[in-house]
Amino acid sequence: MSSTDDNSATGVTSALFGSDGDTSLAEGFLDKVAALHSYFDRDKDGYLNHSELRGLQLLTSGEEMNAATYLMACKSIGCDPQQGISLDGLRLVYASEGANIEEDYSKIFPAKSKDSAKGADKKDDDDVLEVGEDGVDIS
Asked: What is the C-alpha to C-alpha distance for residues 111 and 97, in angstroms, rounded to an integer?
């Protein structure tokens, strides 16, 4: 694939998430996609090949991924099937309608998901004011 191809995963991802370092839109999203990509990138080449993407799909949805589906997925997001799906490509997959990074992340990293949920619950508790009968804060 040519480096000038405007339909590449990198070009589209930059447009969605910003290439100027502004990730305020979706820092948690980006971190979780990166964690999944890194976890399944067993050969650490920066791309998910068929076997690696198949593993992600099996563990998150229980569905098998055949070679034809892998080829279609790669081509639909502008990744070379011989190379695999880049981190930006996986970000595109999870940014698409019907994909759920929170659900998939919690299936792969259940302990981390529970820890972050506990932190959110604790934060919510800290924001609650307890008021006694006379209207005085007793928290």
From this structure: 26
Q: Token digits for 93? A: 């997959």
Quick: pLDDT tens for 8-44: 555 555 555 555 555 544 678 889 999 999 999 999 9
Dist. CA 27–CA 63, nearest whole Å: 28
C-alpha distances (whole Å) from 19 to each of 14, 89, 124 are 5, 15, 33
pTM score, whole prediction: 0.67
Contact 60, 66 (CB under 8 A): no
Maximum CA pair distance of the chain?
72
Single-letter amino acid code for the residue at 4:
T
| 73 DSSP β-pair partners | none
- The dihedrals phi and psi of 103, each to the nearest 5 degrees, come to -65, -45
